[in-house]
Amino acid sequence: MLDKILGDRKYFKLLFIFYVFINTLALGYFGIDFNPLSIVVLIYGGLIFIYSIIKNEFFYTKNHLLLIGLYGILLFIATYLNKDYSTKNSLLIAIMQLLIFTFIFAQPKSMTLKKLKQELHTIIPFTCFLVGSASLISLFMYFLNISGSQNGWYIGLVGDRLFGVYFNCNPASFLAIIVVLMSMIAIRNHYEGSFLYIINIGIQLSYIILTQCRAAIIILAVILTSVAYYRFFRAKELSIVKRVCLNVGMCLCMLLGTKVVQEAAFIIPQIQGAREESNNRFQLEKIKEIVSLTMTGELQNIPKIIDLADEVSSGRITLAKDSLKVWQQSPIQGIGAGNFRNMLVDVTQSDDWGQQILHSHNVFMESLITAGIFGFVLFILFFIKTLFTARDILLKYRNKKSYFIVLLFIMIFVSEFIGGLFDFGVFYVYSLSATLAWLFLGYIYWLNDQSDMSLVDDNEIAIFNRYELLSIVYHKEQLESLKPEFEILDSHYQDDDYIMKVQYYLGQSSFTYDIYYTLYDQKDNIDKKLAREFYTLVEDEIKNIYKQSQIK
Question: Which residues form the O-antigen ligase-related domain (predicted)?
Fold first, then answer.
């Protein structure tokens, strides 16, 4: 029992997901500034840490783990050394970030394909239920025109934007996008209740549109482009210009569609008495003016362009300038986790910054400000390593059935990263979307280090993983005239694999294989069924062996 609780990190991941999901809700509205689940998470994480050391479950030689692990340590040290601003909550955030790197992102040595699939089969339904319920409640708040403001925090309908039960609608939009991708994985792998995942996709897309999150629309366009590319264009060679045009076209179509849906959906809240803000969040006229001023090439237009860009981005350029002032307070070691807002208010001597401005709203700048120059360098190196890993695994699976699943894994992290360029990003435990992004990025790194594995569950009984050719005894014969027969020599479990040793006979020739499966349901005569199916996979290989023998 102890080995299962501490050795199988699935249970810790479920607890951590629930903990961060609670943090994602508008706790501040109710005056709650401490999540008591953090104590349970810390104790559980500490026990797993001790267990992993005893059982030698940590990887010390993986470059990506060293880079991000060192970054986490520097973040914690910076938080500890910032005596003027760091609080218990700051240290808690830094420790939780280390737990994400250590137990959510990093996979143990004992990880197997079966364990990965079991985790997905548990985590995806659990997460979809939590987020689906919260988003559905948020939609009801929208159409019933329920809203409120308390302790500097908002719930429900804020102006013409939907916050709902979340503390901020932008990271909630990124979370909704990730849940859409997770639902697609569940549908592709025939999880029970596929129609519920389809409904959940509709709920999340509705929530995203009603939040009017601009970054989310861009992310959806990128995802739609990727799915369209996989379905229709993967086999074709497209130039960079055509791919850019495809993406821009997707963005324009989604902007137009989003605007139409927003206008239609807002009719009901207006009947309830909601007032619509006069300024359009997409501010297309100002974007056109920025493009026009930029095309002139005149230097005197630069200040005007910057001011317009600041307005369009809701003050993010001003925030970036002030963020650099915060960084200058501790450029080498960084300011640590959870200290940004307090230092921003002191440095700018302004109390106008909202309660939800918790960091610099840019993932690269955040790594520089919180972990200093050395931490920034480590994160940049990790980011470059991630780009190459994503490229390598897509090339590795490009002709496999699992390509689409791998693509969805990558898009989960990409979604959060794009969001991190403009808003809440891949750091901290403010939003569940960041935790899920690290979870699936960890799966990507682990899969890339393994031999080809099937992530597609087409067969409910067993999933073929790999095979080994053990021995060959052959005679030169006419292969076309031979009817294959087989004998199952042995079948047994080894760790998580179900291994069958099968000998195939073709005339006087024989071929012996070890065949590895993930077995879900032990039924009568399943060995014979799997042995027959496997022969179709190696038939061409056997024919090639005969051809080579004739050449010799």
Answer: 205-380
String of DSSP letters for 150-181: ETTEEEEEETTEEEETBS-HHHHHHHHHHHHH
pLDDT of residue 548: 66
Q: How many helices (H) and strands (E) would you count in the chain?
A: 19, 7
Other beta carbons within 10 Å of 50: 11
User: What pLDDT sits at residue 117?
Assistant: 87
**Which residues share a beta bridge with 502?**
488, 513
Query: What is the DSSP annotation of 212-250?
Result: T-HHHHHHHHHHHHHHHIIIIITTS---HHHHHHHHHHH
- Residue 10 · residue 122 · CB < 8 Å: yes
Close Cβ partners of 464 (under 8 Å, ≥ 6 residues apart): 454, 515, 516, 517, 530, 533, 534, 537
Mean pLDDT in runs of 10 for the chain (552 residues)? Answer: 81 96 90 90 93 83 87 94 90 93 90 87 96 95 86 82 88 93 91 92 92 82 75 59 65 58 55 53 59 65 62 68 86 88 80 65 87 93 93 83 88 88 73 93 91 66 79 73 82 79 86 83 72 80 69 43
- Burial class of residue 494 (count of CB atoms within 10 Å of its CB; 0-12, 13-18, 19+): exposed
* Rounded-to-integer distance, Cα 282 and Cα 208, Å: 14
C-alpha to C-alpha distance for 30 and 33, rounded to whole angstroms: 9
Give the torsion through C-alpha atoms of 505, 509, 514, 515, to 10 deg.
Answer: -50
Contact predicate 124/132, CB 8 Å: no
Cβ atoms of 179 and 127 within 8 Å: the answer is: yes
User: In what order do the strands lie in the sheet containing 147-150?
Assistant: 147-150, 153-158, 161-164
pLDDT digit string, tens, across residues 30-49? 888 889 999 999 999 999 99
